[in-house]
Amino acid sequence: MQTRSDYLNKKISYKDYYEQFVDDDIITLVKKYIGIKPIKNSSNDYFNDIKKWDAISSKILTKESIIDKINKTKEGSSHTTGVSIAKAAARIIKRSDG
């Protein structure tokens, strides 16, 4: 896994850094709480036109698989981290066919 230092030192992009935390469970969670349609219809690169991100952050940060990844990368488990991971999942969903 790429570390937070790798990201801060520009060895990995913001997009790639947060997408490494996303797994099938996170994709499913984002689809359930945000919905595919709002993601596909979003006109903002950062999905700031979707207002549900705060509610999903705590659900992401309680997933054991995410906590393990966070610890390995020395990322803090803040609310912002949860939102960034959720939005990374949304980017993956938007790129996908379904």
Written account of the structure:
By secondary structure, this protein is mainly α. The protein has one domain (about 5-95). It has 7 helices and no strands. The chain has helices spanning about 5-10, 15-20, 25-35, 35-40, 55-60, 65-75, 80-95. About 25% of the residues are buried.
Largest sheet descriptor? none
Please provide the count of β strands: 0
Q: What's the shape? A: globular
Order of helices and strands: HHHHHHH
Beta-strand fraction estimate: under 5%
Task: Describe the structure in brief.
The N and C termini lie far apart (27 Å). This protein has helices spanning 4-8, 14-19, 24-33, 36-41, 53-60, 64-73, 79-95.
Strand and helix layout:
Layout: H1 4-8, H2 14-19, H3 24-33, H4 36-41, H5 53-60, H6 64-73, H7 79-95
Helix pairs in contact: 3-5, 3-7, 5-7
Looking at this protein, list some descriptive labels:
single chain, 98 residues, mainly alpha
